[in-house]
Amino acid sequence: VAVDAALLAGVLMRTGEQPHASDVVNYAPFTLLPSAVPRALFEQAYAVQQDFNLLVDTISQNKEFLEQTLASTIKVDDFTARLFQIYMQVLEEGLAQTVFLGINRSDYMFDCGLDGTAALRQIEINTIAASFGGLTSRTADVHRLVLKVLGKTEEASHLLPNNPAKGLALGIAKAWELYGSQRAVVMFLVEEVQRNIFDQRCVENELWNRNIRVIRRRFRDVFEQGSLDASRRLYMDGQEVAVVYYREGYVPQNYDQQNWEARLLLERSRAVKCPDIATQLAGTKKVQQELSRPGTLEKLLPGHPEAVARIRATFAGLYSLDEGEEGDRIAATAIADPDRFVLKPQREGGGNNLYGEELRQVLEKIKDSPERTSYILMDKIKPQPALNYLLRAHSPLRASECISELGIFGVYVRQGQELVLNQAPGHLLRTKATEHADGGVAAGVAVLDTPYLV
Ligand code: ADP
Ligand code: MG
């Protein structure tokens, strides 16, 4: 019943076997049952989202902060260095872009304290290609039906409506409108392999509903067909592009030399990039770690003491591995007690972090080399597991010990210096078996879920 409901509701993905086909598809993995989420923490996560939007947008305009924070990282991490190089190049030329659009997702886990109380802890904020705002707007319907079939009609009525895709499209539409050209299109910048296309289509179709034209192109297409006119308006196949919405471009594998050139062309253009390169850099793990330093938030957001307090309350312990005494000390602590920490490189997309024995070995190896600087350390969050069933096509069904990660979507639009839209349009709950330390839905580890507030 659950699988039929998921297929009917459009909780879909292309298959691993035929990743380019839309005529052979299957359901995206999901939990049989919704998972319990403490209401107070859920509300706390929503309440801080506009603050995070403001913070990310502020950082994206602070060249000095980005330069200082990433100085050590770009010496050793080629990918971040490359992004940073484009950032400096577009600043030098002068920005043609005047309207800015941010779509992000701030992810949290519920850390279980010694006394059993749970605390909201931010895992990271994704400032580029934050996904599942589409499919997640359909999972609550599936879980509602499952609860009813189980005779839990009252419980079914408690599941919240949730439609981030609509809110994200509203932000894109606002940016498109402020760009100010009726004929211009929105371009989704997509991967070569688009298994998660239906998630993107949810946002795309909301734009078509508003009579905004959408095209889907890859970096390769931009390299071959993209051009700028004298006032740096972006054209693709003769159509003017108002907004570029990246659903790719966040990992080194997305780029060859031509794709880097395409990225530079897009960044130089007047089109609204979601995100612009500065906002992508604001979402690096290194920036996240620097934000946790005492005084940094206060400096970035003067005059917003309440926002600062709300943001800081979600931080876990984060530690710099830069060369020097501070880094030496925390590296030694983590080698002695690796289960307390997670070691994170400057990468996105899941499956990159190191834990336990592997963390110890890697850190032991790099502790006296500059390579150490390309990582950060973070306190490991330990949530209370709960039993659930993970439904995945072609996989046997069994009960697993699971933990969940809550994401809150953020969307904002700035025109010049004025934030004209700042919202938290919805949420995403992803759940995974505790045997996996890392990995998202796309990586085949986590599955879509719905919060049941308790
Ligand atoms: P990515 O950019 O690759 O998604 P994340 O920081 O989100 O990197 O980490 C990936 C996954 O690793 C998370 O979804 C979570 O399951 C796990 N993880 C990350 N940080 C922590 C942490 N501090 N404690 C426990 N698990 C973590
Ligand atoms: Mg993540």
UniProtKB/TrEMBL annotation:
Domain Glutathione synthase substrate-binding: residue ranges: 184-282
Xref: InterPro entries: Glutathione_synthase (IPR005615), Glutathione_synthase_a-hlx (IPR014042), Glutathione_synthase_C_euk (IPR014709), Glutathione_synthase_N_euk (IPR014049), GSH-S_sub-bd_sf (IPR037013), GSH_synth_subst-bd (IPR004887), PreATP-grasp_dom_sf (IPR016185)
Binding-site residues for substrate, renumbered to this chain: 105, 128-131, 194-196, 200, 247-250, 430, 441-442
One Gene Ontology MF term: glutathione binding
Cofactor(s) listed in the protein's UniProt record: Mg(2+)
Free-text cofactor note: Binds 1 Mg(2+) ion per subunit.
Domain of life (superkingdom): Eukaryota
Assembly notes: Homodimer.
Protein family membership: Belongs to the eukaryotic GSH synthase family.
Protein name: Glutathione synthetase
Upper taxonomic lineage: Eukaryota, Metazoa, Chordata, Craniata, Vertebrata
Gene of this entry: Gss
